[in-house]
Write a structure and sequence with these properties.
Layout (H helix, E strand, L loop, with lengths): L2 H28 L3 E10 L9 H19 L5 H10 L5 H6 L3 E12 L4 E10 L1 H9 L3 H11 L3 E16 L3 H25 L3 H28 L3 E10 L1 H17 L5 E3 L5 H9 L7 H14 L5 E9 L3 E2 L6 E13 L7 E5 L3 E7 L2 H28 L2
Parallel strand pairs: 4-6, 4-7
Antiparallel strand pairs: 1-3, 2-3, 4-5, 7-9, 8-9, 9-10, 9-11
Helix pairs in contact: 7-8, 9-12, 10-11
């Protein structure tokens, strides 16, 4: 064999070896799934007994979606965007039938009868190659449909309020008048007695003068009682908007939404109409039609893709002392509604948020308030996500 043929064979063998190495490397990569874990919540309406299988499946599906979103944080932006657009079309059955994931465990985290939600935690393995193949095989028309759903942005308007009470006080005028009448009667008797001892003009004059002085004295007492006595006959609840806590709560909600894969939700504090909403909530729970009109007009003009408005309050009660620790105890409560924007008409109520309450104590009121917000941020965001996913398929 001459030198030329030998060199050609050697080159071909090198190419074949390189091809085999690449193939082995690809197979090795494909055969090395990554570990994933996530948590998902699903609402249910059955108040008695265990939630049915459909609720468990929805919670499990949401947990898998959360787990994959977390895993894709270390992957390319293109893959994350593709999963966001086409991922909602992959069913729970598809994940296992197409071997996209391998289940290691699914555990029940919480069955909250009060909030009517079921929370599951999923742990397993994700085959990235199989996931890419599944995403690439989604028909274009279905991808477009999922884009419309996943890009259904929402604006979150939350007003944070501090509660206060005004005491209405009244004087004890009736008792004062009774006291004055008793004193006048007593003085009259004294005058009568004086008259029996000495019925002179001087005695009568002294008695009349004493009576006038006594009446004047009790008149002063009546005035003093009305101005200084504080008898609580009614409580009037008033509100004070807490702007600093509003900013912290809004940022916390956005962080929670982002961790759940909802990156297109906006903070209502960025809109000018948020100020009008705060003013309305500052005097009660009723939002005037003019304020609704202003909110809707501004959102539609600046963010025409938005379909949902989440409007509510986080109310802090007056701080008290924890009876067990003696520390500052704060109570917070979140409530609100989700409105859907349809065409050019008025927003329609889409869902009511669960009333969520949390209590925390700390050495200072601010620390206790921060702890309450940390709890309510997660619970409120998860409730909003559950409501949107359950009713709109997000």
């Amino acid at each position: 064999m001459d030198h030329y043929k030998q060199n050609k064979i050697t080159k071909n063998m090198k190419k074949l070896a390189i091809a085999i190495c690449v193939l082995l490397a690809n197979n090795l990569f494909a055969a090395a799934p990554i570990s994933i874990s996530g948590q998902g919540t699903a609402p249910y309406t059955n108040l008695f007994g265990k939630p049915d299988k459909s609720v468990e499946d929805l919670a499990k599906s949401n947990a898998i979606t959360d787990a994959i979103n977390r895993a894709l944080e270390n992957q390319s932006e293109a893959l994350r965007e593709q999963f966001k657009k086409a991922g909602p079309t992959i069913t729970l059955e598809d994940y296992f039938a197409k071997k996209l994931i391998t289940e290691l465990s699914t555990t029940l985290v919480n069955d909250d009868k009060a909030e009517k939600t079921l929370t599951m935690r999923f742990e397993g393995k994700l085959d990235l190659t199989a996931l890419r193949d599944a995403l690439n095989s989604v028909p274009a028309d279905q991808v477009q449909s999922s884009v419309n759903l996943s890009n259904s942005e929402a604006v979150i308007f939350f007003t944070v309020r501090m509660t206060s009470k005004n005491k209405i006080s009244t004087g004890e005028s009736s008792s004062t008048f009774n006291a004055e009448g008793d004193a006048a009667s007593s003085l009259a008797k004294n005058t009568e007695n004086e008259g029996n001892v000495s019925a002179t003009d001087e005695g009568v004059s002294k008695s009349e003068t004493s009576l006038k002085q006594a009446k004047g004295k009790f008149k002063e007492q009546e005035t003093f009682t009305e101005s200084s006595s504080e008898t609580e006959v009614a409580d009037e609840q008033t509100w004070k908007v807490d702007k600093a806590s509003k900013t912290s709560f809004g940022n916390g909600l956005l962080d929670r939404f982002s961790s759940k894969g909802f990156n297109d939700i906006l903070d209502g504090a960025e809109f000018e109409s948020s100020t009008e909403l705060d003013a309305a909530y500052g005097v009660g729970d009723d939002i005037p039609p003019a304020v609704w009109k202003q909110i809707v007009a501004e959102v539609r003009e600046s963010e025409p893709s938005v379909k949902y408005l989440v409007v509510g309050t986080l109310d802090f009660s007056i701080p008290t002392k924890d009876p067990l620790t003696g520390m500052q105890l704060m109570t917070g409560k979140v409530s609100g509604t989700i409105k859907k924007l349809e065409g050019t008409g008025r927003p329609r109520t889409f869902a009511a948020l669960a009333d969520i309450e949390a209590k925390q104590s700390a050495a200072t009121q601010q620390d206790a308030k921060t702890r309450v917000m940390a709890i309510l941020t997660e619970k409120a965001a998860d409730d909003i996500i559950a409501k949107l996913r359950n009713k709109s398929g997000l």
